[in-house]
Amino acid sequence: MTGATFRERARYWFDNTMSRGTASLVGWLAVASVLLILVVTGLTLWLAPDEPEGASGPGEVLWITLMHALTPGKLASDKGSIAYMAVMFAASLGGLFIVSMLVGLLSNGLRERVDRLRRGRSRIVENSHTVVLGWSDQVFTIVSELVKAQAGRPGSVIAVLADRDKLDMEEEIRDHVGDLGRTRLVCRTGRPTEPHDLALMNLTTARSVVVLSPDGEDPDAHVIKILLALAKREGAHPPAVAAITATRNIAAARLAGGDEVHLVDSDDTASRLIVQSSRQSGMSVVCMDLLNFDGGEIYMRSAGDLAGRTYGQALDAYENASVIGLRRPSGVVLNPPMDTPVADADQVIVIAQDAHGIRPATRAPEVDAGAIVAADTPALQAERTLLLNWNGRAEQIIRYLDAYVAPGAVLEIATDHPKAGADLAGLRNLTVNVKPCDTTDRYALESLGVGLFQHVIVLSDDRYTPHHADTRTLMTLLQLRDMQRTLGEHYSIVSEMHDESNRVLAEVTEADDIVISDTVIGLLLAQLAQNRHLSDVFAHLFDPHGSEIYPRPASSYVRPGQRVTFATVVEAARRKGETAIGYRDASGRNTPPHYGIVLNPAKSRSVVLGENDSVIVLAER
């Protein structure tokens, strides 16, 4: 192969300089302008040495040539010989092309710069900001909750990085979330898996990072790739939380993210909540209230003056906060034995409206010991549960249900899903039967004898798109509710849905509990972004072992119809080894948004609980 010629090398060099952008092109135009002016000046001095009239030397001729190149209109006022006019015409014509190209280049370069700014490609310079990486419907829940959590913090910032248009992201978030208050939203366009794009978010000074699980196929692979990119970057690594869809990918994600990342198992969390809601009516509402930043939130406070007391004595230490457990050096324990001493190194876990409400009570609460009922908690009975539809987390739901129910319990699975009932070996307490059924068909549902069951679980069928699956779930709920009214049957109904916007429609069905799985995960991620130590608390709340949340008959704690303070209810639960955190008014069980549930009432609050009302407690089965 022969070597490159001088012409080829020169052309290659010229092409490289031309490809460097607007600045390089403007530089070449400047060179062309200088050459044009020098050539025209030289020709004028040679062909018309005495022109133009009044020119005293080469310097003035150079200036006149420059003006003709920059302002072609000056040619109209020129007078002189044919040679002079021809040379000036050449200068004006060349200047016209050069100026036109310069204006076009500057306009194009400015437009590219504006487009770059519009796409959000500049590096942010915020401090203590929360970074959200990726995009899914959960982003609206997370941003909404973070706005509420940071409402009292001036200058709070939420920064979002996703492979979407910057303006589209900002518009969608504002449409879904509404007023952001004092929180500023900063969106940047980029791929969270690329280190160069991650550098735009100024992660070194970030307060926390939230990694979203995207919609579409194999979302966990995308999350794990983002975690790898975060782990490999230089500089400080802020605490991060990420949602993993499939439990089997948790180990790989933990290895990719390292110690600074806390992982949320989406399927596992949603499955636990569905099971607990199916067993305890109103459980989903209680958990949603604890997870969001609207009402009662979970806080951790140093033991302080409570050190030296027992856990039972600490239950009435706060007027407007409910103590639920301890965070000890050995780990979190909820509803420990009442004689457990509170040590100096412990943190007290409380439910409070906000951090300012956690103040010691100024006086001992008023307790009416005569209103307390000494009734035993009824023993667990074998029950019948009906599961309608099937999806990828159904097996996990059944195994968690098996850990809750008494031996001899029966689970009927009714669906036309081809995978229904597979891989259920090893169940200890449940007897499982599978029946083919179109769960949207009224006659098929009636043939199941739904009235023979105590609990009904309606899952989202994964054979359909989320929107269509929610539509079918609504159909099933309407059929069940109408059957209850027509046949006079009584059983609890818990349903799983995808879209939060369908909750309003589902309220018409008066289902006991509606679990929006994506919303639950979004709320949990927002909570952990604010305080990652809460992960152990929520893990205990959703675990079938140890103490969980139970709504239990109020008549087992205080005399029905008698007015008492909530401190009396707390004392009644304490005597049973339980922690009371609220109550449910049966008359409001179908009234959104709280469905009669009151969490963390003031200890001095006066209440009248009837036969159908419930006390919400932390207790063991």
Overall description:
It is a multi-pass membrane protein. With 621 residues, the chain is an alpha/beta fold. 39% of the residues lie in helices and 18% in strands. It has 19 helices and 22 strands. The strands form 5 sheets. The protein has a 6-stranded parallel sheet, with helices on both faces. A 6-stranded parallel sheet has the order 13-12-11-14-15-16. A 4-stranded antiparallel sheet has the order 7-10-8-9. Helix 9 links the parallel strand 5 and strand 6. Helix 2 packs across helix 3 and helix 8 runs parallel beside helix 9.
In terms of DSSP E residues, the strand content is 15-25%
DSSP helical segment count: 19
- Helical percent range? 25-40%
* Rg on CA atoms, Å: 36 Å
Q: Largest sheet at a glance?
A: 6 strands, parallel
What average pLDDT do the residues reach?
84
Order of strands side by side in the largest beta sheet? 3-2-1-4-5-6
Q: How many DSSP E strands?
A: 22
Unreliable stretches, pLDDT < 50, 5 or more residues? none
* Class by alpha and beta content: alpha/beta
Give the terminus-to-terminus CA distance.
Answer: 85 Å
Task: Indicate the overall shape.
Answer: elongated
Organism: Nonomuraea indica
Domain CASTOR/POLLUX/SYM8 ion channel conserved: 268-367
Membrane topology: Multi-pass membrane protein
Pfam family, one: Castor_Poll_mid
